[in-house]
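Troubleshooting entry. The earlier prediction with shikimate-3-phosphate gave an output that would not parse, so I re-checked the input for stray whitespace and re-submitted. Clean input:
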Amino acid sequence: MTNLIVSPGPLIGHTTVPADKSITHRALLFGAIADGASRIRNPLRSGDTNATLGVVRALGVAVQESESGELLVHGRGLHGLQEPETVLDCVNSGTTVRLLIGYLAGQDFFSVLAGSPQLRKRPMGRVTDPLRQMGAHIDGRDSGKLLPLAITGSRLHGVDYELPVPSAQVKTALLLAGLYADGLTVVIEPGPARDHTERMLTSMGAPIVSKGKYITSERPQRPLAPLDITVPGDFSSAAFLLAAGILVPGSDITIQSVGVNPTRRGLLDALISMGAEVQLDNWREMAGEPTGDLHVRHWELTGGAVQGDQIVTMIDELPVFAVIATQARGDTIVRDAAELRVKETDRIATTVTELRKLGADIEELPDGFVVHGPTKLHGAHVSSHGDHRLAMALAVAGLIAEGVTTVEDAACASDSFPDFEETLHKLGAKLDVTP
Ligand code: S3P
């Protein structure tokens, strides 16, 4: 129950952010079914990705760690995973469990997936329902809609499935199951959910084809080639620094080597349309992903609207976007974001409740929120509710609030951003951590 005590002040300097969480999860899981050793440089080592690493090892895959932090995943091929001897603990990680359900449904063994009390509340029917249409045998609480889940590997067949809401986790689970299924699996996505899976599996030689909103997957004719990648910085972690850089007068920061995949950088588009200038330099490719250095300083913003297809491209950034909106002139409205209600917490409710404690003028909508700005925030005791992204969004609010802000239960930041306090501290933030 660590508390983070934040005083206002600017951020100045150069930094990197931890590696991309979505890409690290995938590199571990995909590397495990490749033929040979995958080299993953700069993987994210966080609560969530360590859960995936533990599962991969429990499936009989050797993973070596070098002193430089690089991981060597000794892939066992598409049919080489072993039946785990114990329950697979996904801890707090929604991506781990949802990807695994698809990954394990077509294996020829039995497995059980479990997780923390937080994860046990999150909906799994969105993955288990379409997988059952493919012939998967999955049992679990609430008819297989909640963890723990028991998967009896079975013979799958392809289906055409239109996702009710855009979700990269569900898309990935179905594409992975498609690698083990008879016939073609067609996923139809209603919006541009992150496409790391398509990029990575294609680079490994898997028969994954994307055409607009249609993505297909089928049984590979050849073994999957191992990966050899350097994971770029996580845009979703950079978002907290970007927000602080723009909001706190006197700030001037450069965040190096950040992934700026178009399906991830909706926050950049929102900031630019609200008047901010964000410089993107040093464009290059890392792990098949567009990557660059982001340079920001303080800007005055005007309110804006975020809705429709843009939502999925900034879904994890919406709590910190609410903080940004408190400093924009006029109203900022977020709609079509009901998905926020089934993240680590109900992020509409928790964001609105906590920002109000700091003086924000924010109203809850069924599928988003409206912020009337700008408002002067004032320090207060706020809670992360055990949600890493809320903890960090509130810390950013603390950098602009008058007086001292205490973010309770802030240790969860390490689910995705292990050195969050140290990174802010090095950029000049005034922070203290108390047990
Ligand atoms: C993720 C997909 C998103 C995102 C999550 C990571 C992924 O979830 O919110 O943090 O790596 O595939 P949904 O697929 O539920 O939108």
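This one parsed fine. Residues 22, 95, 167-169, 172, 194, 315-316, 339 surround shikimate-3-phosphate (CB under 6 Å).
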